[in-house]
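Below is how a single chain appears once it has passed through the pipeline. First comes the sequence as given, then the structure the pipeline wrote out for it. We keep one example in the README because the format questions we get most often are answered faster by looking than by reading.
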Amino acid sequence: MVFRVSVFYVLTWFFLILLGGIQQETGLLPPEVGLPQWGPGIAALLMLLIFRKDGFKLTFFSKDLPFSRYLTALIPLGMGVLAFLLKSLMTLKSTPDEALLNSLPLVLLWMPLGALGEEIGWRSHLHKKLDMKMNGLLSSVIVGLLWMLIHVHFLGEGFFFLIFLAIWFIAQSIVLYAILYDTGFNILLATLFHWATNLANLLILDVIYETSFWILNSLLWAVLAGILVWVKKDVFLSQKTINTHKGK
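Resulting structure:
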């Protein structure tokens, strides 16, 4: 498993760099369209071809999944509003991003596609693969950290900033796991969660590089993640072998 996870991550970085370079050099797509977001998805699809003998399958859609489960994927919108309210209590100045406002239709159009590209890789391939060998909490921590590290635009913000950024990504990974673990890591459900997260982040773009904000935002998500781990201890802290939804 370690070898396959390593191959997936190397391929992810390869396609992130390749797609980013293509977008930058050709100028065919505006910077608001994050073409590199499809790096993890392409890597996952390629893994299916390289290791097709494994019989590993992706779950794109579950017909028997109740509508209420899709509503839980909108949790990030509520958390985003709460984060926005916290931001309003801070002394940070808020200035609208005019470039973003002008390109908002394009951003909203790309968001679902970008989220899909990422979630094919992170949840429906990597997290599902790790979940076959380890408990939910450990797999969520690993996926969260690997997910965080590809966000290179944050990596120069300093150690303290990155600590709380990592907490946020791990907490999000835990919440996502609680929603997805018994659905075969449903791609549509994961994409909806990711899209809701990106949409909510539009509310706090003006403080997206502020360490003080990330302390509050990450702790907010950490509380939610901690509650879910406590409530679902049997899901997160034990090896699951009887889940019929996961498959291979």
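The first helix runs from residue 2 to 26.

See the next section for the split statistics.
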